[in-house]
């Protein structure tokens, strides 16, 4: 993966979380901010140092280090690491009360993202994410972390179950979809909307894993279309055979599925 593609995927992952947990304005990649982030990543890699914050007080930041024998890295693991280090329950309806990696990712007032990636001589990989305006200002967390109830963080059926006590009347009048209907609805949603994504594409190879995930969770009989037809729909979206990354992961989330690799 090129550094430019890495930055775009990391941006997409940020904006997916921002949309789900607060529905705030998407971040935009900023060239100047990325230069600063790259300089800090290079400095960390050159000195093979621990994760040390920069001295720039005007930016917020998230840092990541990975020891990789083959030089590979995964954007999803980086985001997952930041969320896990924040001790955030993505299925909880409670707002965080303290700042963390996660709160900087979804911070409303932050509008620009800078990304730096550098490989050290020992095989270590350093990732630096800079944010401007900086977030994680303690006295402003309530107005910048807008989590009231996470959308799409659990499957629709699980979400309805969790709210059954407070929303029982509404649930009784709502016709619940069968598992097979839900699967096919999401597959069609992917096909129809993926080609509208302007940034953030996911490879066909990774997209194909959705069938394995669906079959493991629901069984092969829950998909009306066969695998060949499904893959052809993806391939016909554009010349590269890539599908909108954000839409694909959002659709998986609606099924209660997670694509880790």
UniProtKB/TrEMBL annotation:
InterPro entries: CAP_dom, CAP_sf, CRISP-related, EF-hand-dom_pair, SCP_GAPR1-like. Gene3D superfamilies: CAP (3.40.33.10), EF-hand (1.10.238.10). Residues 151-182 are annotated as: Disordered. Residues 157-170 have a biased composition (Basic and acidic residues). It comes from the Eukaryota. Residues 5-139 form the SCP domain. PANTHER family: CYSTEINE-RICH SECRETORY PROTEIN-RELATED. This is SCP domain-containing protein. It comes from Brachionus calyciflorus.
